[in-house]
Amino acid sequence: MKYELGRCLLSERLQEKGMSMEELAQVLHYKPEKLSDFVENKRIMPLKSAISIAVTLGCEVNDLYELITSESAVN
Q1: Ranges for the HTH cro/C1-type domain (predicted)?
Q2: What is the DSSP letter of 62?
Q3: Average pLDDT of 38-49?
Q4: For the purposes of burial, counting CB atoms within 10 Å of the CB of 53, is it exposed (0-12), middle (13-18) or buried (19 or more)?
Q5: pLDDT over 80 (residue 27)
Q6: What is the pTM of this model?
Q7: In principle, which of 16, 37, 65, 68 could form an S-S bond with 43, CB 3.0–4.6 Å?
């Protein structure tokens, strides 16, 4: 099964944690604009960033994006 990334769920994870984007940026030493680009789907999180964000927020990397499944034909 193949997965595609849907929309970024970072804003939802931040809301659940009660943390602002600015606070997360400060903790991770990121520019807030970088996180904003992820939330607005202007950029896809690199794996290293996704891991850092997930650990900081106490969630799984898979929780940071909608995952869209598509079955590809394999011959």
Answers
A1: 10-64
A2: G
A3: 97
A4: buried
A5: yes
A6: 0.87
A7: 37
